[in-house]
Design brief:
Strand content: 15-25%
CATH superfamily: Metal-dependent hydrolases
Shape: globular
InterPro entries: Amidohydro-rel, DHOdimr, Dihydroorotase_CS, Metal_Hydrolase
Order of helices and strands: EEHHEHEEHEHEHEHEHHEHHHEEEE
Helix content: 25-40%
Number of helices: 12
Strand order of the largest sheet: 5-6-7-8-9-10
Structural class: alpha/beta
CATH architecture: Alpha-Beta Barrel
Number of domains: 1
Organism: Sporothrix curviconia
Family: Belongs to the metallo-dependent hydrolases superfamily. DHOase family. Class II DHOase subfamily.
CATH topology: TIM Barrel
Bound molecules: N-carbamoyl-L-aspartate, zinc ion
CATH class: Alpha Beta
Distance between the termini: 24 Å
Radius of gyration: 19 Å
Protein name: dihydroorotase
Pathway: Pyrimidine metabolism; UMP biosynthesis via de novo pathway; (S)-dihydroorotate from bicarbonate: step 3/3
């Protein structure tokens, strides 16, 4: 297949292993966009206000999501916090909660209740290892803790390595990898360590992220060389790397009205999640980062659907359900908004031409 010229692609439904669905009216607006982006399985982040730190609240939230977006398999996570003891891990595992998200305190949106001292959670990690729960990591350090000249993500990598050494059977996912160094670090770990790659880190760099509020997110997009390593990593087909959009909706006015450099962090890609990955890979081909024929249907299905499901020990996608992508000249609209216009979120890459996506169920 030559991605640049292909007119029609048929793929298994995507599994998006990192989504932000928010609460209330914003949740009702964004949850239905999961399927629009070709996704049937979504791993939901717990950084709500307040964060999801009890099993009951997670289960309640799951019900709300299922009501807002029927047909999506929502996998749930807890927010790592002092109250997440080994006993809570046992309860969470019995209740079907999939994993626990570790946010170093203060590194991103709604992470003030995050972790300041990792050692305090060693018993919790041991319980997660025993119950085979996943540890999802926002792998960045606070700006004040990074050595000069080193990115916040690179400065976190020794912590990833030491956690993996201490808990070798704990399945760990380094979320939204944004640097060549992180890709190397994940490859150097054993098979229990994997990483998600977003759509937007495949097309944004620091040049856009610094100055366009709709391109600003954590981890901050880096150099063109980092972006291109992520693209090559997908084309290599390594099963340690899979899709997690980190689509992070913020109300349009909070982005547009923010003072320069002060917009809330998060890029919204959910309604075109699959298409934005395709677009970024196409641009990678145009720049000569990967070969014309490097992106086969197999490579796409592995990255977007199979690798993530396998790492999470989920069944394969139902073979009778497919997503069909066709070039019909459609462009990404400016925003997604509620019927009465009161809730509105700006789309990443508004105006750009993308494949049109439809679901095919035999
Ligand atoms: C996320 C959000 O808005 O919740 N923001 C982001 O920039 N990615 C949080 C996160 O995943 O860091
Ligand atoms: Zn996120």
């Amino acid at each position: 297949m030559h991605l640049k010229t292909v007119q029609r692609i048929e793929l298994p439904p995507a599994a998006d292993m990192h989504v932000h669905m928010r609460q209330g009216d914003l949740m009702k607006l964004v949850a239905p966009t999961v399927r629009q982006g070709g996704v049937d399985t979504a791993y939901v982040m717990p950084n709500l206000v307040p964060p999801l730190t009890t099993v009951d609240r997670v289960l309640e939230y799951k019900k709300d999501l299922e009501a807002a977006a029927p047909g999506v398999n929502f996998l749930m996570s807890l927010f790592l916090h002092a109250s997440i003891t080994p006993e809570v891990i046992a309860l969470a595992s019995a209740a079907g909660i999939t994993g626990v998200k570790l946010y170093p305190q203060g590194v991103t949106t709604n992470s003030d209740a995050g972790v300041a001292d990792l050692k305090a959670f060693y018993d919790t990690f041991a319980a997660m290892e025993k119950h085979d729960m996943i540890l999802n990591i926002h792998g960045e350090v606070l700006e004040s803790l990074a050595p000069p000249g080193m990115t916040l993500e690179e400065a976190f990598l020794p912590t990833l390595k030491s956690l993996h050494e201490r808990f070798p059977d704990l399945r760990i996912i380094l979320e939204h990898t944004s640097t060549a160094a992180a890709v190397e670090a994940v490859k150097a770990c054993g098979p229990s360590v994997a990483a998600t790659i977003t759509a937007h880190h495949l097309y944004l760099t620091e040049t856009e992220a610094c100055c366009n509020p709709h391109a600003f997110c954590k981890p901050i997009p880096k150099k063109p060389t980092d972006r291109d390593v992520l693209i090559r990593t997908i084309a290599e087909g390594n099963p340690k790397f899979f899709f997690g959009s980190d689509s992070a909706p913020h109300l349009l006015h909070t982005k547009n009205d923010a003072a320069p450099g002060k917009a809330p962090a998060g890029v919204f890609t959910q309604p075109f999640a699959t298409q934005l990955v395709l677009l970024a890979l196409e641009e990678g081909i145009e720049r000569g980062v990967i070969a014309e024929d490097a992106v086969s249907e197999e490579i796409l299905a592995n990255f977007l659907s199979r690798h993530g499901r396998r790492f999470y020990k989920l069944p394969e996608a139902t073979p009778t359900k497919k997503i069909v992508l066709e070039r019909q000249g459609a462009a990404i609209p400016e925003s997604v908004r509620s019927a009465d216009g009161s809730v509105e979120v700006g789309n990443s890459r508004a105006g750009d031409k993308v494949f049109t996506l439809r679901w095919k169920e035999a």
